Amino acid sequence: MSAAGGGRDEQSGEMSTLMSASEVLSGTPRGGERLVLVLVWSRDEPGRVGELLDPFAAGRRCFTVGRSGETGSDGAAPLLLRQLRPTGARETGPFRSARISRRQLCLTIDGVGRLEVERLARSRLLVNDRAVDRAAIAVGDLVEVERRFILLASTRPQGWPSGGGSGDDFAFAAADCGGIVGESTAIWSLRQQIAFIGRRRGHTLVHGPSGSGKELVVRSIHALSERRARPLVARNAATIPEPLIDAELFGNLKNFPNPGMPERSGLFGEADGSTLFLDEIGELPEAMQAHLLRVMDRGEYQRLGEARMRSTDARVIGATNRDLTQLKHDVLARFFHRVAVPGLDARVDDVPLLARHILRGLADEEPELRARYFDGDEPRLSAALARALLRRRYTTHARELVQLLWRSAQTSRGRELEPPPDDVAPASASTPEREPASEPTSGVDIAEIPREAVVDALARCKGVQERAWRELGLRNRYQLRRLLKKFAIPT
Questions:
Q1: pLDDT digits (tens, 9 = 90+) for 95-128
Q2: Contact indicator for 239, 233 with CB cutoff of 8 Å
């Protein structure tokens, strides 16, 4: 399969230049990014979450999605799932679950570059929770084959894969050596910044929303630096009592400034030859921030009660969730490198991978969770929980995700994790509420449905007709009643 870029349409001549996510609707080629469909939930193949369908990189206009890996008589080629990274792509084949049809969906790139999805098999197709037979897809849409799998419309750079990279030798969808999880564009951009800054010496400011993983970024930078042989020295600046800030940072002689005070080398003394991580540096009073200027510039400082000047070779990495304009401007100027850590709203397609990683960690500490909610090493999330996690507008990000998963484990009653009943968080702006491009047309042809299928559906739904007609892919309950009457099935 070719990398991003133009290609030849094997059916109808030249394919237009690949388009960015926003261009999918406008049809105006500008380059930059292309639309992909990321697998964010799978009932039977949860280990493949994070893989994606990449139609705009395949050099065709029409594809089928399902269990088949063969081109159909109509010329529609199978679109295979792939693991995509900046430096490479690996095809992993079609879906394998027996519950998925050989040709479940049809994906078509129309003449102006829009991606359309069409239902081919019996299971209902839902786009943003609305049943459709055919719809155009835009970034943020959830495309669901009911009770089978969910895809999220996202983007990847046109230049992926570019080849020749390094630092991506960990398993796909797993945590990297710094504990960072994700395969989105945003998280790979973050990894590239970490790799660049880790090899350099300048003081660094890591900023981003609360719970976005700033400490993991700091520790990753230190682990890649020439200072990694010495332990990272870390302190939450917000917890230092204001009268003791100078003593904490620079140290003090014995009995100074107060009788009984032990002698301390201070954080800058401890971090000599290593990295000093000042978390929540924005919480330091401005007057105290000014005390950092000389030691950040020249490595010079004085212990309290001591006349002589000391020197330290400490690299300062600060972290803050404040707006950078709230830091003292001359302190901000000393941070030569800056890293912006994205929140979950900027990397929605990583949320299922993070949830799986978090749940595995919780299960290691709580064997009851593993016994109840896991198949092997894979947690069982319901489709409803997956949708809730993807649509949530996060305020404390990974911390909020951990809390939500704990509440799910506490309130779920079956063998799958369900959304907590008290979860009333607003929907994320990344999943727009919009009408599908086309309304549902017709359901399946009821003349083609055998008696056994109706009996099986009723059995799976425990006789609940409202669920059974949806399971069969019918338009409404009245079609089910006609089938019940036709086959003389008692109710």
A1: 999 999 999 999 999 888 899 999 999 999 999 9
A2: no
